[in-house]
Amino acid sequence: MMADEAVARRLKALACTAPLHDLDARKAHLEWADATGYQMAEVALRVIDQVTLAMDFDHGADHDQVVRRVLPFIAAQRPQRPGGEHEQVGRWVLESLLNVGSVDRGFQVEYGSLDAEGRYVRHRFDFKLLVELAAADGQVYLRTTDEAINVLVGALDTDVESAQVAAEVKLENLIIRGMLGDARLAAEQARYRTVQYAEALRGKLEATERDVRSVDWLASVPELIEEALAHIESRYRSETAILNNIADARDTSGEPARRRQAAELVGIVNDCIRRHTQLQARLQEAGAVFRAEQDRQQFAGGARRGAVDLFGQLLRPCLGLGVARAGGPTSAFFAAVSGIRVPSTPGLTGLVEALLVPRVERDPLGAEVPVPELTDAAPDRFSEEQWRRCADLLELPGVSRRLSGLLAEARAADPELPSLVALRVLHAVGASVAGALGSGERGVCLAVDDGTVLDDPEFGGSDLLVTLAGVRVGDDAR
Amino acid sequence: MIDEGSPALRPRDAESAARLVSLGMRPRQLPARDPVYAGLVTRYRDEDGFKDLVHRVAAGLGLVVLAVTEQSGVVLAATEDSAFEIKMDEYARRTALQNRQADKVLHGLTHLAVAALAYPRPDDLGNDSYVGRVSVELVDAAVREACRVLEERAEGEEDPLSDAPELERVWRVYLRRPSAAATKDGRLAPDTTRGIAARALRFLAEQGFLVVVDADAGVYRTTPRYQVQVRELASARAFDELLELGVLPAATAGGTLSAAATDSLA
């Protein structure tokens, strides 16, 4: 049985690396580029690195940031290829690590073990390497899972605490021997541990804010805090040792490569120290968060009478059921809480119309703005000269004339003119004084029908009396 | 039908009763905004004969009258296989076939979680003047937290069987489903747990059970209708189902949303 468990554990550890190998296996089938020249597993590790490093208390990195940060590594593999392809490779690796396209965005592996009766049963192990989480502002950002951190640091299926001790021993040895490359690795490993502690603490604090009693503040949290503080303390010692050593290495070393390594290590160690300080600050605040939340939640009011406890009596038991059995209560609840649907009854006319309406294609930018078609306006029917002559004809101060006379006079001057005169006189039939006042004219042309019939070769109707009435602006009109 | 205190019912009373039932089908219409509605509600309350008539009209249509009050209006529920019933299959129609069973459970479970978060203590459900607030984030976070506690308890348990996905525990399914996923247009991916919660809240708002408080943050408040629906019907139905399955939830007076791990803090 023990051997069985060990096999299962190792198999799971192995499974976590499978998505990385899979990348290199699949790269030959990519259509958008000849990607065989890229080391995809390496890119994937870089991506996981970048996501892990960006994990702080409140934020992780978003997709664009991560791709941007791994670009130099990808470009270094095939510098002759265009930058667009590098970015595409980065995105492909990131999406593959998330397993975009699967519903759960994760991976699974099957393994078997012998049950109590000695039969072979197959189990499924689900795991994820990167997860996406929504921040308060709705932005989606990335986090590394514990599985991925384990793959990354190579400490497959080991206890956090013992791995920590081992890493430190290794670090001291390395520094003594002056092996900076390995020292850097150890420092990085220690940094991942810090991130892991920070994650664990963040989770506990969040849970506390929701409900003080959901987190074990008697034993498990104090334990976690103690462990984390011990971790910080020991790291502080190690890092001081590294800094002292590096100072020596940097100053005494004649090799440029060694100097560069030392300088890089300084950067990493400084980052470690920053993270430790941050973690320490959080650890110190943790107790205060607990006390504040306890006060707040204690005074939130107590229960007075019993009814159904939705969370404890319905939701929690449902979560514990198997999928098939949970279907009953959850569907029953849904059916009862969803209210009623009023069936719509389409009339035949409405139905036909609805069926004939073409599908509306939605464009994210909205409808296209139509370009107005500009055509030349029709030229005026009457020339300016004709307008002027017509105005002269209708200039009738104090006298009134018959339309027939005006038409005859107009016809004599210009065969087109009578039409204009007729139109203007017709317009004058209902002329309004207010309009003339408004446009500031001094007179208004008036036409009155006295019953006389017009005798004209072109026009018919009444022979109107036309005159020009002066407009006087009186005091009361103002 | 005719008792001492109320006048004899006439055919046109059947019309009034049917009108009251039909007003219940318009969740956004409330007695407070409609004097005719308010009048019918008063009549329902005062006249036993009319009340009985309303119940019979509803029953004939395949509906049950859950409550008729000034605050909630007429709250109706569909009987099984009635034309007014909303089927889970229609609600969760867009899911892929292979996840159907799990998806339906997640949708139902999310509705349960919305109610549980809206009325965290049993008392809130009983108190007619209580107005709950829920948000997408709150629902998802609370369910995840409950799953996490179950996961902690299940430590050492074997992984689920690969050839019997229907036996997998619901909390595992929920935990495995991502809470959010980046999409090309920046909206919530519909098959994530937040997407499912957002869908449930939107749906309940359309049904007149919730009212949007802050659309951007996805915050809603409850209406008296929703309280009636949860209290009088939904919780009881789910409870009965659980009893039938032999899962006997123990009653606690204080409510357990705020006591996710009481056993470790005795």
Question: What would you note in describing this structure?
Answer:
- The complex is a heterodimer of chains A (478) and B (266).
- Chain A is 58% helix and 9% strand.
- In chain A, the strands form three sheets. Chain A has a three-stranded antiparallel β-sheet. Chain A has a two-stranded antiparallel ribbon with strand order 1-2. A two-stranded antiparallel ribbon of chain A has the order 3-4.
- Chain A is mainly alpha-helical and 478 residues long.
- Chain B has 266 residues and is mainly α.
- Chain B contains ten helices and five strands, in the order αααββαααβαααββα.
- Chain B has a three-stranded antiparallel β-sheet. In chain B, strands 1-2 form a two-stranded antiparallel sheet.
- In chain B, a hairpin with a 3-residue loop joins strand 1 and strand 2 (73-78).
- The radius of gyration of chain B is 21 Å and the shape is elongated.
- Chains A and B meet through strand 1, strand 2, strand 3, helix 7 and helix 10 of A and strand 2, helix 5, helix 6, helix 7 and helix 8 of B.
Per DSSP E runs of 2 or more residues, the count of β-strands of chain A stands at 7
- Estimate percent helicity of chain A: 55-70%
> What coarse outline of chain B follows from CA principal-axis ratios?
elongated
Helix-strand makeup class of chain B: mainly alpha
Beta-strand content estimate of chain A = 5-15%
Can you count the beta strands of chain B?
5
Rg estimate of chain A, integer Å: 44 Å
Query: Mind telling me the C-alpha Rg of chain B?
Result: 21 Å
Largest interface: A-B, 84 and 113 residues
> What fraction of residues of chain B sit in β-strands?
5-15%
Low-confidence stretches of chain A: 155-162, 302-306
Question: Globular, elongated, flat, extended or rod-shaped: what is the shape of chain A?
Answer: elongated
Q: What is the averaged pLDDT score of chain B?
A: 82
> What is the ordering of alpha helices and beta strands of chain B?
HHHEEHHHEHHHEEH
**Overall average pLDDT of chain A:** 77
The profile of the biggest β sheet of chain A is: 3 strands, antiparallel
Q: How far apart lie the N and C ends of chain A?
A: 110 Å
Q: Give the oligomeric state.
A: heterodimer
Would you identify the regions of chain B where 5 or more consecutive residues have pLDDT less than 50? 1-5, 258-266
